[in-house]
Amino acid sequence: MKSLIVISGPAGVGKTTVAKALLKTYPELKSSITFTTRKKRRESTEDKKMYYVDKEAFEACREKGEFLEWAVVHGDYYGTHRGETETLLQTNPVIFNIDVQGAEQLKKLYGPAVTTIFLLPESHEQLVDHLRERGEMSEGSFQERLKSAERELSRQDDFDYTIVNAEGKVNETIEKIRAIVDSLLRP
């Protein structure tokens, strides 16, 4: 089995941007396969293959053990498909853009084959600004996402690496993470 690389952190911190850059840099790196009950975003910014399903279909897959990991995030279900992802892992390293719950589940399942990287905002203000930029949401939804982000930030010490993604310095962040990935894929 090849390496599993997890990119995690609160919403709006730049996980998708980093994952996309890594997928472009490393042709051998493949993306995990995700099922979700959330609605498809207007503009596709996804860095992974996504299947959009209803809650009943998701729960049926979960009951059959079809997910390596799954979690409820902001009221929507997300899960990494076991069969498709394990097929990829036979020949390629796989990157996972997932929340802290999923990272913990993968670490328990695969142990040292998993490398976890937690992206941090440089400040609370940056986190708030990025959450607000995510689009129209009620104040209640915003507060729920902010509390969720704070819970995730409290788990950063559970990760192998923590990297601050400073405003306007995403290329520097990507370079730091490339150094980690180089050590895994090109020792």
Task: Describe, in plain words, how this protein is organized in 3D.
By secondary structure, the chain is an alpha/beta fold. It has a single domain (4-185), classed as Rossmann fold (3-Layer(aba) Sandwich). Helices cover 43% and strands 24% of the residues. The chain is built from 7 helices and 9 strands. It has helices at residues 15-25, 55-63, 82-89, 100-110, 124-133, 139-153, 170-185, and strands at residues 4-8, 30-31, 33-36, 49-52, 67-73, 76-81, 94-97, 114-121, 161-165. A 5-stranded parallel beta sheet has the order 2-7-1-8-9, sandwiched between helices. Strands 4-3-6-5 form a 4-stranded mixed beta sheet. A hairpin with a 2-residue loop joins strand 5 (67-73) and strand 6. Helix 1 (15-25) packs across helix 7 (170-185). The model has no long low-confidence stretch (mean pLDDT 90).
The main sheet comes to: 5 strands, parallel
Rg, Cα atoms, Å: 16 Å
Task: State the end-to-end distance.
Answer: 16 Å
Class in CATH?
Alpha Beta
Mean pLDDT: 90
As a percent range, the share of strand residues is 15-25%
Number of beta-strand segments: 9
Number of helices: 7
Helix content: 40-55%
The helix/strand series, from N terminus to C terminus, equals: EHEEEHEEHEHEHHEH
Assign the CATH superfamily.
P-loop containing nucleotide triphosphate hydrolases
* Low-confidence runs of at least 5 consecutive residues: none
- What gross morphology would you assign? globular
> What count of domains describes the coordinates?
1
**What is the architecture at the second tier of CATH?**
3-Layer(aba) Sandwich
Strand order of the largest sheet: 2-7-1-8-9
CATH topology: Rossmann fold
